[in-house]
Amino acid sequence: MSNPNGASSSRRAARPNPSTAETIAAVATPPGRGAIAIVRVSGPATREIAAQIFRSARALRPRRATNGAIVDADGRRIDEGLALFFAAPHSYTGEDVLELHVHGSPAVARETLIAALSAGARLAGPGEFTRRAFFHGKIDLASAESVAELIAAENSAAVRAAAAGLSGGLAREVDALRASLDEMLEELAAAIDFPDEVEAPSSQRLAARIAEVRARIAQLATTWERGRVVREGVAVAIVGPPNAGKSSLLNALLGDERALVSESPGTTRDTIEERLALDRSTLRLIDTAGIRAHADRLEAAGIERTERALEQARLALVVVDASLALSEEARALLTRTRGRERVVLFNKADLGRAGYDGRDQAESDALFGSVRDAATLAAVRDALATLLETSETIDLSRPHLGTARQADALLDAERALAYAHEALIAGAPADLISGDLMRAIRALGELTGREADERLLDAIFARFCIGK
Ligand SMILES: Nc1nc2c(ncn2[C@@H]2O[C@H](COP(=O)(O)OP(=O)(O)OP(=O)(O)O)[C@@H](O)[C@H]2O)c(=O)[nH]1
Ligand SMILES: [Mg+2]
Question: Which CATH superfamily is domain 164-230+396-451 in?
Fold first, then answer.
């Protein structure tokens, strides 16, 4: 059996990345003031740079924090701080790495970075530290992507999903699938090369093994849709008759005057989407134009967008005016949304309750209150969170897909295997089936980065921030 790791590392060694000869530096902490800022340096000149810009009574020892002074090119003191040195290959990037922990002022961080640059480093590109980690085999591509996901995570479920991706479980799973396809390919190749000595593998057995791999791929593919909800949020359409307080509710939930609010009905014409991080999940709140029967042309276009938002959203947040007798539109919308996951709020309780009292049995559990009241907002949030809790999520202890790119690669593999399967059943020649298997193996290799080309890597690491 061929070893996919071994094969690819020799391939990579034959094509050295010239840029790793350079030493890179960047501020690793976010811009702005904080307790500390970290400037990170990685590459072959790290020790020399450390000698130039860090002064201490004691020599730097790997993985030990050393107290000292950071100095600029003229030997002028910039700050007192800590230096952490990691010797290659025992570091994040696999190279010599220096971390300078300085006081968290943007000016100090910048001066420290400039000192490192004038001592021989160049400014790191986005994700370049992680890219080097990948290049030196410290991390597979799917795990590298999890680093970006982790940084972007907005809620605790997304954090857990990304953190689980860091461990390389997906790459191991995909490597195992690749290995079993490799095995089939070798059996086919032997039968093609030595038709007299080697018996061709039985097509029935091959078909069964391909089906096994496809079943596992299909199972992995389902983790993509579910994972996306965790990361990107659940769409919630805020719908209701004009002037019910939909935009007011959006603003109140966000704690920000995001949408225009006015006493004249028909204020919102276009849909507005904003993200709201709840404790365990993220919502994509979509404020819509109020639905009313006799609308002018411009309004009608807005209402059409509302209809679309309602169709596409997972949850509906229906807002109606509690103080007025229920309008024809309000009744129609309540009836329409009965079958789906929704939260109903009878708003403007401070002005009256005629509408709330006149509601149907089906709306008996609707919320009654005002968007101006904190308790009502808390109740809306809780009701949304409860609906989400019962929904499907991914099992984070199992390998799962983290990005659209990974899902695409998996789909490519699946397509190639579907062809292979068909070809087998149709009794096609072995080399045709081999071609399909090779395409599937290649697609899986792209997923883990074992066969990723430079362009793909550029695209992936461009998403990172500088300093990561
Ligand atoms: N008294 C009171 N007024 C409210 C409440 N909620 C909203 N309003 C007012 O109702 C009016 C309409 O609010 P909007 O949030 O613009 O209503 P909307 O549903 O977005 O309206 P359209 O965008 O026109 O469909 C504004 O003047 C708000 O200040 C409430 O709970 N109590
Ligand atoms: Mg509005």
Answer: tRNA modification GTPase MnmE domain 2 (1.20.120.430)
